[in-house]
Amino acid sequence: MAIILFKAGNSHKVNGIPCQIQVCNEFSYLHLLEQGWFYTPEECYAEEEEPELVEVPEIEEEAETTEEPMEAGEEPIDEIRAAAREAGISHWHNKSIERLVSELKDTENAERSED
Description:
By secondary structure, the protein is α+β, with helices and mostly antiparallel strands. It contains four helices and two strands. Helix content is 32%, strand content 19%.
């Protein structure tokens, strides 16, 4: 007696389902099942079972911030960039904050020396 196994492919159509066909000896086909062959063509395209979703309890947001505390006299980044833009510093949007602070200080010193 022969066993017919099926695998996804397009060499044959069985019941309108494209697949590959393998005719095997009834005593030596189990290794093919481990290699992705199936007993029916429908199994070739069966959707894999989706893993069960585990509900994760919602974590209440706390007022903690992961940012480092600002030192005395330190301005938030957005304010530094806004000040650099107002001062007319070129490329204010992509320069480092340290560089912007340095250029802002230079601009302020230049304005003071002009007065």
